[in-house]
Design brief:
single chain; 146 residues; alpha/beta; Rossmann fold; 4-stranded parallel beta sheet; two-stranded parallel ribbon; 8 helices
Length: 146
């Protein structure tokens, strides 16, 4: 698992800052810890900040800017969808998903990684494309190496 590439979507990234009201927050934090420890790699599409900001502005309007700044301060590697736009549109067409969700999944497909999401509906729609896993089924590297 060391060195595996993960693409956490906004549903996972939000659990890093909205801990009190999020299911599987501990698993999301384990993913963050694994990345910070170098046990895995992550990459996110450049749209991640807008998706996260949208939810933070609704759920935590009083401190949304500080929470977003903390997330941006992590300096997650980002990739522009220009490099995988064709894959995004294919996922949209073949699996009837939004461009936003397809951006994370398309990035995982093109880079040979795995999209990690808490969105069960998305996984049900697009699991046939591969490279997607539910957060609650993801195991931190230390658990998978035993």
């Amino acid at each position: 698992m060391a060195g595996s590439l993960l693409v956490p979507d906004a549903s996972v990234l939000l659990k890093w800052v909205l801990r009190s009201d999020e299911d599987d927050g501990d698993r999301a934090l384990a993913l963050k810890a694994a990345w910070l420890a170098g046990a895995c790699r992550i990459v996110v599409p450049t749209l991640w900040a807008f998706e996260v900001a949208n939810v933070l502005g609704v759920k935590q309007p009083a401190n949304a800017d500080q929470l977003l700044d903390a997330m941006i301060g992590l300096r997650m590697p980002e990739e522009s969808p220009a490099a995988y736009a064709t894959t995004i549109f294919r996922l949209m067409r073949d699996h009837h998903v939004t461009a936003y969700d397809a951006a994370y999944h398309g990035l995982a497909l093109v880079r040979g990684g795995t999209m990690i999401t808490a969105d069960r509906r998305y996984v049900k729609k697009a699991e046939g494309a591969g490279h997607v896993q539910l957060l609650d089924e993801w195991l931190p590297p230390s658990l998978t190496e035993e």
